[in-house]
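User: Show me an example of a complex going from sequences to C-alpha cells.

Assistant: Sure. Here are the input components:
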Amino acid sequence: MKMKKLLSLGMAMVLGLGALTGCAGTKTSEQAPAASEASDASADKGGSEKSSAFDKKRVRVVIGSTSTSGDSFMVADTVTRFLSKELNFNGKVDAVGAAAALDAIKSGKGDGSTIMIFHDMTYLGVAFDAFDETYALENMVVGPRVGINPGAAFAAKADAPYNTMKEIAEYLKANPDQKARVAVEAGGVSHIAFISYYEWVKENYGEDVAKRVVVIVGGSTAEKSQMLWDGNCDVIFADYSSLKQYTEEGVEAKLKMKFTGLLDKIEGVDIPTFADQGITLNGEPFSFSKEFLIYLPKDTPQEIVDELDAAAKKISEDPAFVEEMKKLTYAAGYMPSAEAKVHIYQKRDALTELINEAPPLDDLTVQ
Amino acid sequence: MAIFGITQFLVALLGVVVGIIFGAIPGMTATMAVAIFLPLTYAYDLNTSIFLLLGLYVGGISGGLIPAILINIPGTPSSITTGFDGHPMAKRGEAERALKIGITASLLGGIFSLVCLWLFTPPLARVAINFSAVEKFLIILFALTIIAALSKGNMIRGVFAGFLGVLVALVGAFGDNNKLRMVPDMFKIDLMGGFELLPVLIGLFAISQMFEQAEIGMRREHGPDGELEKSTRKFSFKDFKGQLVNVIRSSGIGTFVGVLPGVGGSAASLLAYAQTKNFSKKPEELGKGAVEGLVSSESANNGLTGGALIPLLSLGIPGDSTTAVLIGAFMLQGIQVGPLFITQNPDIWNVILIALLLCNILMFVVMFYPIKFISKIINIPPARLYPVIIIMCIVGAYTSRSGNMFDVWSLLLFGIIGYVFSKIGIPSAPFLIGFILGGDLEKYFIDALKGSGGNLGVFFSRPIGWIIWMLILASIAYAVWDNNKAKKAAELA
C-alpha cells in the first residue's frame, strides 16, 4: 500500500513536471510581445533608454537543415555561441529543416526571440519553386552576413578517366557512347552548380555532349558517396572538407576519390576552380560560395537588426571566432546587414535567371 | 587528456541515466538525447565527450524496453517487438522478470556488437560497401515479411495494414523533384517531410489505448490491462538456458543491420524477431510472452549500437540516425571520421572501445538493480497512470521536431486511426512497420533503378540479392503455411 502511495506521488510529480515543460514554450511566446513592446517603447522614447533586446532572453536559432553535422549546423552553432556571449542571451540552434525554418521566420514575432542563420537555400527554395512567394526574401528582414563556406566541390573516383570538369567535357566529346552521371541534390546549391556547368558545356561543346552530362538525384553527402562507390554515378557534389579524407594517401582503392573542380578558391588548397578551368556563365568566370546570413521576421524593428549587426561585427573581429571558423574550413566574412541585403538580392536575381533559363531537372536526369 | 578517469566515469554514468530516461519516455529517442547534449561537449575534451555521447546512445536504445514491457508502448521505434512478448509476460505478473531478461539481453547484444566493432571493423566495412541500393531494398523487403509472420490467422488484414503504412510513409515531398504527394494544400509546409515517426508511433500505440480505456471505463485498483495475474516466477539467469543461438543470431542481425548505412535501426529488431519466429521450436508461443522473443528483440536493438559505429568510424558514413548526430561531435572537435580515422587516431579509437564497454556495463547496473521498483508501475491504477502517459506523449510529440504543434495533431489523428483499426479488426503493428520501412523501401527502389538506367532486372542481377530473395520467399512461404495452419486449428476449435 505504501509503495502504491509512493508511486502515485511520483506520478503526480511527473505530471506536474510535464505540465511545466509544456508551459515552458508558452512562457517564451508570452515573453515575445513584451520584448517587442519594450523595444517599441524604447524606440518611441527616441532611444533615450537604451536596453538590449536580447539581454537574458532565450533565442531560438532555426536552420534550414535537419542535420547536426553539416555546414548549416556548424556555422549556426559557432555563430550562436559567440553571439550569445556578446549579447548575453541563451541561444539554442534548432535543426528543423528548410520548410519549418522558413515558416518559423514567416510566423515568428519580430522581437529577436526567433532568428534564422542559413545559407543561399533561403532564397533558392523559392527560386526552384519548392516554396511559394510568401517565403521570399522580401517577406523577411535580411541581417548581417556571418559566415562563408567556399568549399563546394565536384569529385570523381580516383581511377576516373578525367581529372577536371573541363576534361569531363573533353572525354565525352572524344567518346560519343559515354555519359557522365553527376549526383546532385534537387533544388539545392549543387543543382545551381550543375546547371551552370551544363550551360557551359552546351555553349562550348554542343548539345550532343551536354545531353550526356546527366543528373542522378542524390541526398546527403553520405548517400552520394555510396552512389559513387556503388558505380551508380560518376561524379558527386559535396563539401570539400567532407570529401578531402577520401582523396588522401592510404585510402583503399574502392573508396578513393579525386576532386575535379571547386566552385570557389579555398585558401591554401591547390585544386583548380571552375574559374581556373575556364568554366564561365554568360561569359563571366563562374564562382559560388555559400553565404550564411542572419534572417529575422518581417516586423523586426531596426534597433534589433542594428544590435545584431554590431555584435556580428564584433565577433568577426574576435580571433577565437575566426580561428574556430577556420578550423571548420569556413571564413567569418562579416558583411553589414544593409550591404548584405543588396548583395543577396542581386545574387538571388542572377541565380533565378539562370534557373529559369536552364532545362528542368526532370529533363536532365538520366533516362 | 586522460583516456579514463573519474570524470569520464561520472560523465558516462550521467549519459546512461539520461539516455535511459529519454528512451523510456514515449516520443523521445536516443537520437534526441545525443542531439540535445551535443553543444554541451564544447565544455569537454573529445575523450570525455565520447563517454557522454556513447552513454546517451546506449542508454537511449536500452530505455525503450521499459514502457514497451510495462504498458505496451514502445519507448523508441527499435523496441516495437519488445512489447510483443514483454508485455504479455508483464500481464502474467512477471514484469520484473521480463524487464531483467530484456536488460540482460541488451547487455549481451551490446557486448556482441562491441566485439564485432573491435575485431572486425575493416572487413565488415568492406561488406557494407558491397551492399548497394539493390541489396538494401531487398533487406528492407525482407524486414517487411515480418508483417506476414505477425498476422497469423489474419493475414489479409495484416498485409493490407502493412501496405497502408507504406502508403502513408510516402506522404510528403518526393526528394528527387521536391514535388508534393498526397498533401492537401493547407498542410504543404507541415507535411513537406511527411508525418513524423514518433507521433505516429505513440499515437497508434498509446493514444488509441487511452481511447479504448476511456470507452470501457477505468477501474480504480487494477493495472492498465485489467486484472493482473499473480505469477510468482522470478528472474534467473537460467532463463537464458537454450538462448545462446538466439542471442548470437539476433545480436548478429542487429550488428549487421547497423553496419549497413541507411537501413534504419527499427529494421534490426524486426528482422531478428522474424527470424527467431522462423527458427523457433515453438513459434506459436511467440507473441504470447515467450522469453526467446524478448531476448531476440533486445539483443538485436542493442547489437545495433556497435554495428552502426562501424561504417561511421571506417567509412565516414553513419550507420543510423544517432551516429549521424555523433559525426557532429567529432567535427566540432576538428576530427574527421572516415577511412583513415582508426590508423591516424589510435588513442581515440581505444577510447571509443573502452567507453562503449563501460556504457554497456553501466546500463546494465543502472537498470538491473532498481528495476524492481520501476516494474511496480504496472500496478498503478490507470486513472492515475494514464494522465501522466498522455502528458508525456504530448510533450514527446511536440518536441519531436523541436516544438511543432502539427505533430501533436498528428499524434491525436493516429490515436484515432489506431482506435478505429482496433474496432474494425485491423492490426496496428503491421501498419506501423509498413510506415517505418516504407520511406527506405521507396528510396532504395528508386536508387537501384537510377543506377541501372531503369532496368528492373537489376534486382536479380547479383548473387547477394539471390540469397536475400530466397530468404524473402522462404519467410513468406512459412508465414502462409503457418497462417493456414492457424486457420484450420481455429475452424476445428
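The lines above are the inputs; the final block is the predicted structure for all two components together. Chain B touches chain A through 57 residues (CB under 8 Å).
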